[in-house]
Amino acid sequence: MNCYKCGTLVDGIDKCPVCGADMHVYRRILALSDSYYNAGLMKAQVRDLSGAIRDLKMSLKCNKYHIDARNLLGLIYYEVGEAVKALAEWVISKNLKPEDNRVDIYLDELQNTPGLLDGVSTNIKKYNQALDYCRQGNRDLARIQLRRVLGQNPKMVAAHQLLALLCIQDGEYAEARKALSAANKVDARNTTTLRYMMEVKEGLKSRENERKKKKKRDDIISFTDGNDTIMMPNNGNKFTDWFDNSRNSIINIAIGLVIGLLICFVLVVPTVRQNAQTDAANALVDANEEVAGTSSSISSLKNQVKTLQEELAKYNGKGDVATSYDNLIEANNIYRSNIDKATQLMSVVNPDVLMPNGKAIYDEVIKVVNDKIMRDSYNKGNNAYRNKKYEEAITEFTTVVNIDPAYQYGNALYYLADSYANLNDIANATKYHQMLVSMVPNSKWVKQSKDYLTSVNASIPDPLPNATMTNNYSSNTYTNSNTNNNANANNENNADANAEANPEGNEAAAQ
User: Fold this and answer.
1) Are strands 228-233 and 220-225 parallel, antiparallel or unpaired?
2) Cα three-residue angle 371-372-377, rounded to 5 degrees
3) Those residues with Cβ within 8 angstroms of residue 498's Cβ, 6 or more apart along the chain or in another chain
4) In angstroms, what CA-CA distances link 439 with 413, 415, 463, 507?
5) How far is CA 210 from the centre of its chain?
6) Using an 8 Å Cβ cutoff, are 434 and 459 in contact?
7) Phi, psi (5° rounding) for residue 478?
8) CB–CB of 58/36 below 8 Å?
9) Whose CA is closest to 466, among 444, 439, 493?
10) 73: helix, coil or strand?
11) Phi, psi dihedral angles at 170 (to 5 degrees)
């Protein structure tokens, strides 16, 4: 076991010899985390999923790096229909332990099953719509929507519980008991399910008592004889006795017609009306979903496009956390011996996802890589500039300027501006001449840049406050560049000397 503060190996030691941290308490915390995990595993095996969730949360509260507890918690969430919470736990587990993690099996199954994630997302939206119907008082629409949810995900405990609660409010205790029984098969000891079940039992018991009392009242006949009230059992059926003793066929026919009409109105008409109401409710739910989908589709697509564009601009082809760290480590190992390979690896590293230690390594390696990139691009651009291949020179000098505008005391920035001027691109030429004046005020090209800006009637900016700092960094970069590439230094100095010797020619070319 390693120390939780400094990482020193402390097996069998109660106190860290390096930082002095108390390992006895730390071991007790880890043991308590394992104990909660074992308790949660035992409860999950007997389908006490609510109790298992509580124990596993306590295990993770003691030790957030307990990967087995986090994976099991995600499985239980997925079992009870909470797919979003399950995915959250699995993603955290993957980030904490990228290699040799069983969670890869779960995530691969989700990603490789066609339409699974879309179905989960649609089901959650339907459940939320049912909640909105409940808040609006449309219990019939909410029940229809919940049955659709359970048709796609029969193990969603929250949907069963909400359906049972709606049935209890409508006095349909038998339907509520069916929904709670289904929820109980998934999570055997859910406290919410047990509380609703107790309410259903009390409702059924109360209804049964009322039925018995009513039957008892119907079985007793009471009448008054003088001052006395006489009560006696009702052993006869008045309607049957009257029907058997009746001799009038006309009355019998009338009774038959009345009975037929009653059957029609009592059985047929309510059924037809109920079917019509159900069809109307289903049509209303479908219409609401279609309207909601249509109204949100455009905004949703715009938001998706905006999000994707932001992510694209942010990552720019770079990798995720694991890929970035892999490429950074490999580049750090080889950049002293193989700078070209290191440059290729660093191009796909995303610094935004790195931790502070990784960011420090990234800064160290990228400085060397950037020096290599700027040196090569500057040499190529310088050759292209001398050969009047201005488009190629613009490409190379732009790479240098994007990394360090003050590189080579502003030489790259001036050559870039002059290349644009030779191509009659006044806007870009003006832009980069202004950058040279403001960012590298000590450059030898400042006079030529100001003359050019004056000739095109462009404003001459003031130097930036941190221009001196930028020039100092450029000086260091220039020194390192000359040290690492003496062969190219002569070409650069010759080009600079030519430019100094004939500044009017450069200015004329810029114009």
Assistant:
1) antiparallel
2) 100
3) none
4) 10, 15, 6, 20
5) 53
6) yes
7) -65, -40
8) yes
9) 439
10) helix
11) -85, 0
Spatial distance between the Cα atoms of 428 and 170, rounded to a whole number of angstroms: 74
Distance, CA of 204 to CA of 173 (rounded, Å): 7
DSSP 8-state symbol, 265: I
- Give one DSSP letter per residue of 327-380, joined into a string: HHHHHHHHTTT-HHHHHHHHTT--GGG--HHHHHHHHHHHHHHHHHHHHHHHHH
Asked whether the beta carbons of 436 and 446 are under 8 A apart, the reply is: yes
In Å, what is the CA distance from 131 to each residue of 123, 127, 279? 13, 6, 21
Place of tokens 């003359």: 451
Most confident of 195-199, 286-290, 301-305, 313-317: 195-199
Tokens 């049955």 appear where? 147
Q: Write out the two tokens for 486.
A: 């003496």
Residues composing the chain: 511
Residue type, 497: A
Place of tokens 């009047």: 388
Encoding tokens for residue 326? Answer: 């892999």
Query: Quick check: 417 and 383 in contact, CB under 8 A?
Result: no
Distances 356 to 87, 366, 464, 511 between C-alpha atoms, Å? 27, 15, 30, 48
- Whole-structure pTM over 0.70, yes or no? no
Query: What do you get for the CA distance between the two ends of the chain, in Å?
Result: 72
pLDDT (tens digit per residue) in 384-429: 999 999 999 999 999 999 988 888 888 998 999 999 999 999 999 8
- Report helix angle 191-218 to 173-186, nearest 10: 150
Q: Which pLDDT score is estimated for 247?
A: 55
**Residue 427: C-alpha distances to residues 96, 191, 443, 463, 506 (Å):** 50, 71, 22, 20, 18
Residues 6+ apart with CB under 8 A from 155: 79, 80, 81, 186
pLDDT, tens only, 25-50: 888 888 899 999 999 999 999 989 99
**Dihedral-angle region of residue 47 (phi above 0 means left; psi in -120 to 50 means alpha; beta otherwise):** left
Q: What is the tens place of the pLDDT at every residue in 45-94? A: 998 999 999 999 999 999 998 999 999 999 999 988 888 899 999 999 99
Confirm if 365 and 332 have CB atoms less than 8 A apart. yes
Tokens of 53: 């969730």
CB of 143 within 8 A of CB of 163?
Answer: yes
Query: How many CB atoms sit inside 10 A of residue 81's CB?
Result: 26
The answer to whether 145 and 130 are in contact (CB under 8 A) is yes
Asked if 27 contacts 10 with a C-beta cutoff of 8 angstroms, the reply is: no
d(CA 4, CA 26): 8
